[in-house]
Design a protein that fits this description.
The protein is α+β, with helices and mostly antiparallel strands. It is built from 10 helices and 38 strands.
């Protein structure tokens, strides 16, 4: 028989230390000459990233011991490694150099510059890469460059646009394609697909735009085995697959579903050719993903029935595919799939967990202004404990980062940490989230700080009215843009009893004038052009209205954060101190935008739980890192 204990105070076998040290990040799955590769982030090694290979049943590290395979391009990185002939090409640190296994440093690379998105010509002689050079002027210069491995020459292929990404070679090596865009656009707003000839001496002639524009987002260009340029475009209002036939972009399988993703990081892949006539694609609809086979001639899609609702990093070679797969019951894993019989093997998992899990429930809920929004609901779940019959659980509302991004239904131990202790949790895909078409993604145009906050409050009220949670014990949490949503909800509304801001934004004007190049004009679309819309920035910045804030807040902040600098959290902390509102501030040395080190991940989880216990009135163990509530 289960013990009866107050919600929030349940004992759980899922400790923060286990989550912090045992969960490894998995990304950038690739398959080449029968071997499977991926990038693995290891919190127990300070967040170090390693290129790992699985070949002939054996798993081994490919990148050297002690090297952190990482790139700081756009600060968020991505595309950290690629291939050139038999060599693996990888970026070390955040500007420490580019290396090829077996041959050492890549000749021609600029010292101190950052590189990513590596792709080689079919013969392995030329390597294309995105280059970010901070020595070029007031903001870094982003270029597409090629390196000739025979003579070490570096050639700039595109250096006159604000951003460039996603280079690819045709199978014959005679053409390259890539994406470009300029301020104030972000890649999900509008990008251009460029096509350029390539010859024995490198790029030949001028590039020409073949698709895209300021109001059309192109994602992941690539060539078919026969050399037909293929890409994803949202020209229809949804990110769908297209091919270039002559000078015309032809839709392959029109659908109210997303074949693309927001390009926050480089090297993203959601589709791959299985043959000249078929494409394997990860397709997102209603917040969940599935693997589909697209037949080009008929324009039809066939779902491959697999136990995964989240699929990323897709790559295909012969009759095998590889991807990162997960679901509400399955941890993220490197999955190798036999395309003939759909048998699969998980060759690496992010973490091992055999305990009970709270499963996500997909919900749609009404919000202000007649809008409908989306979320995943997790109910308290612990087979050893039950809550009192006359009590409802506290509710955590979580806003994702971005804000042009989305949460998903993959099994996350950080969510199970809360549900196993008696919390209900709402993971909200508010207005502006991706995965629901361009119209939904564009809702936040000029409305950031308003609509997503209203949606989070509406989600909380929706489940409270259904008796799922205690309306008096609702808290809100989020990181980065989700931290901004948290601070806006607590400052401008009276819907939550407490909150937690993880590297969140309190001052929009400070963000507009002090952030990195990639997002330096992001707020033009979300709020308005700066400084023309300065009054709007002021009106939506919690830092200017702390007299309206009357509930406790805990702040977690990396002191090396270049995206949301520590001054944002410190200004909010100072304002709360002047008002005498209970608060806590937990800074982390050596951390940037997000926490990579196991001890800091543990401290953030334990600290947030303890803070809620102190503020909502239930017992919980003290965190291993002492926290002072001021």
């Amino acid at each position: 028989m289960s013990r009866v204990l107050s919600y929030g105070s349940w004992p759980s076998a899922l400790g923060a230390d286990r989550i912090a040290s045992a969960s490894r990040g998995l990304a950038q799955t690739r398959i080449r000459e029968g071997a499977v590769y991926w990038l693995e982030a290891r919190p127990d090694e300070g967040g170090r990233q390693v290129v790992v290979r699985r070949r002939a049943g054996r798993t081994e590290d490919v990148s050297p011991a002690g090297v952190d395979v990482r790139t700081g391009v756009h600060e968020y990185g991505g595309g950290e490694f690629g291939f050139a002939g038999d060599a693996v090409v990888y970026a070390a640190g955040r500007g420490e150099g580019v290396f090829c296994t077996g041959t050492g440093a890549l000749r021609g690379a600029i010292a101190g510059a950052r590189y990513a998105d590596f792709v080689a010509s079919p013969d392995g002689r030329f390597i294309l890469a995105v280059e970010e050079d901070a020595s070029a002027g007031t903001e870094p210069a982003n270029r597409l460059v090629s390196f000739d491995r025979e003579n070490g020459n570096r050639q700039v292929l595109c250096g006159d646009r604000d951003f460039v990404s996603s280079p690819c070679f045709s199978p014959a090596g005679d053409r390259i394609a890539y994406l470009v865009w300029d301020h104030p656009n972000m890649p999900w707003d509008g990008t251009e697909l460029q096509l350029q000839a390539f010859g024995p001496e490198g790029a030949a002639g001028s590039a020409r735009r073949v698709a895209g524009g300021a109001q059309e987002s192109i994602f992941q260009p690539g060539f078919s085995p026969a050399g037909v340029l293929t890409f994803v475009s949202d020209a229809s209002g949804w990110w769908n697959l297209y091919q270039l036939r002559g000078d015309t972009a032809v839709a392959l399988a029109p659908a109210s579903a997303e074949f693309g993703r927001p390009q926050w990081v480089l090297g993203m892949r959601s589709w791959a050719f299985e043959s000249e006539g078929t494409i394997l694609a990860s397709v997102s609809a209603d917040g969940e993903e599935q693997l589909q086979r697209v037949t080009i001639e008929t324009g039809t899609c066939q779902r491959l029935h697999l136990p995964f609702t989240n699929i990323g990093g897709l790559d295909v070679e012969g009759d095998r595919a590889v991807f990162i797969g997960a679901s509400g019951e399955r941890a993220p894993a490197v999955v190798v799939l036999d395309l003939a019989d759909l048998r699969f093997e998980e060759v690496a998992r992010s973490f091992e967990w055999q305990g009970d899990v709270a499963r996500p429930e997909v919900i749609r809920f009404p919000s202000k202004g007649g809008r409908e929004a989306h979320a995943f609901l997790y109910r308290p779940s612990n087979p050893e404990v039950a809550g009192p019959a006359n009590e409802r659980p506290p509710l955590i509302v979580k806003g994702h980062g971005g804000p042009t991004a989305a949460t998903n239904s993959a099994l996350k131990l950080a969510i199970q940490f809360w549900t196993s202790r008696g919390f209900a949790l709402l993971d909200v895909n508010y207005s502006g989230s991706t995965g629901y078409g361009r119209a939904y993604r564009s809702r936040l145009a000029g409305a950031w700080g308003l609509l997503e906050v209203e949606d989070c409050i509406a989600a909380a009220e929706f489940v409270s009215e259904q008796g799922v949670a205690d309306a008096a014990r609702r808290v809100i949490t989020g990181g980065s843009a989700g931290g901004y949503t948290t601070l806006c909800a607590l400052t401008f509304h009276d819907a939550f009893a407490a909150g937690a801001s993880h590297y969140g934004i309190g001052d929009l004007e400070a963000l507009a004038t002090d952030t990195h190049k990639f997002e330096s004009r992001y707020l033009d679309g979300l709020v308005g052009p700066y400084p023309e819309a300065r009054e709007r920035y002021h009106e939506r910045s919690p830092i200017h209205f702390t007299e309206q804030l009357a509930c406790p807040v805990i702040f977690f902040q990396g002191l090396e954060d270049k995206v949301v600098p520590p001054g944002q959290a410190e200004a909010m902390v100072a304002a709360l101190a002047r008002r005498g509102i209970p608060h806590a501030y937990v800074p982390f040395e050596g951390e940037g935008h997000g926490f990579r080190r196991a001890e800091n991940i543990q401290a953030a989880l334990e600290g947030e739980l303890w803070f809620y216990g102190q503020m909502l009135g239930f017992e919980t163990a003290a965190p291993t890192r002492p926290i002072e509530i001021r």
